[in-house]
Amino acid sequence: MTLYDLVAPCLDTCAEPRYRITEIRDADPLGADALLAALPAMNRDADVPALTVALRALVPDLDRVAEWCVIEALAAMRDLGMLLGSLKRHGAQPVAAVPEVLPVLEELARRTDMVPRDTVHHYTTWNPLGRRQRMYTGHEMEAHLQEAVRMVFPSLVAALDTCGQLARLEPYDPGFALALDRTAQHVQAMVDSIDFTIDNVSPSYFARTLRPYFEEIDVAGHSYLGPAAAQVPLWLVDLTVWQCDRPHPGYDAFLAESVEYSLPSWRAFHAAHRGGVSAVSKLSAALSWETVHRLPPELVASAHSLARVLRILKTFRARHIGIARKAYSDDLRLYDEGSGGAPVALLRSVLDLTRDNETLVRQATQRPRPTAA
Q1: 12-138 and 147-364: same fold?
Q2: Where do the domains of the chain lie?
């Protein structure tokens, strides 16, 4: 039994409707199952007229939208989003092609408290499984990529709880190391996900076939990114572990845009913790006050646990860069930036920052031996 098996079932009982994954997957408020089953064929043929007719056919009356709960609204945005991305991939701005979709997107955004288009959560976690699965291409590799993102959602939800606990604790508290150990278990899911992606999705398929479906679209004069893996908020873990008080202009700018695509409770988490004191800073301050050669065992445990989390984050980012370099190499790439709006150079910078913080924590516990009198 994996950590996912333990965490995922609990989400469906949450009061937070965005965590009730099974209900969202099961919902089909637009009656879109049959139409979206034909979407890969429309995309294969680059059939813009058929895609336009399909989007127009799915657009609901605003009176119907007003009757939906959050779960139904999320499912509706999911299904409209598949056609938004498909039209843009084939050169059409979807809202310009089907203007009547604009007020519906805006109303769905208000009802779900999210951006007025689909996000990575709609495309992966809230996407039905099996024969109802919504895909742009219908290719096995697309299904694998969706699964790679889907498998980390429960662990990231759990990581928010442990990171919230971490922010309230000090390194001398035994709970500090415990919160970090639990966070490490949750973050390991990201490494498992990237390994699954490496094994099952080729860089050429992603770069040449799937990446064009994640292009930004225009909604009422504002550009909104497509369902990007960068919207999976590993940065929420960074925030409390090291980032909230260790700014980096490029990463800060990227986060400012990425936060917009998060769930409401995750945006609230970011707002609550972005001005806090990171675990790295807390540990560094505590260690600086220690004058004896032998550190208190609580501090040693906290340092080891913090270094472990940073090491896992570093491992994920190193493997992510490996994939990105291949997908955005000169002979494959169609775009200069990733689907989340970040260039490969920024991934390198964040990896370096993660490595620097790991080194800082590791070296801080290597205290010099007292000199003989």
Answers
A1: yes
A2: 12-138, 147-364
Q: What is the pLDDT of residues 162-177, one digit of tens each?
A: 999 999 999 999 999 9
Residue type, 41: A
The mean pLDDT of the chain is 89
Q: Which residues are CB-neighbours of 259 under 8 A, at least 6 positions away?
A: 266, 267, 270
Block residue for tokens 């775009």: 335
Q: Does the structure show a pLDDT above 50 at 373?
A: no
d(C-alpha 300, C-alpha 317), whole Å: 26
Distance, CA of 90 to CA of 297 (rounded, Å): 60
The answer to whether residue 293 scores a pLDDT higher than 80 is no
- Model confidence, pTM: 0.89
- Nearest Cα neighbor of 50 from 63, 41, 37 is 41
**Cβ of 52: how many Cβ atoms within 10 Å?**
17
Could you give the C-alpha distances from 141 to 20, 126, 136, 199, 202, in angstroms and in order? 26, 18, 11, 10, 8
With pLDDT > 90 as the criterion, what percentage of the chain qualifies?
71
Average pLDDT over residues 152-171: 93
Cα first-last separation, the chain: 57
Name residue 222's beta-bridge partners: 219
Q: How far apart, in whole angstroms, are the C-alpha atoms of residue 142 and residue 183?
A: 29
Q: What tokens does 163 get?
A: 């990171």
Q: What is the mean pLDDT of residues 340-346?
A: 67
Pairing type for strands 217-219 and 222-224 reads antiparallel
Which DSSP state fits 247? -
Please, which residues bridge with residue 218 across strands?
Answer: 223
Please state which CATH number belongs to domain 12-138: 1.20.58.1320
Tell me the CATH class for 147-364. mainly alpha
DSSP 248: -
* Residue 307, amino acid: A
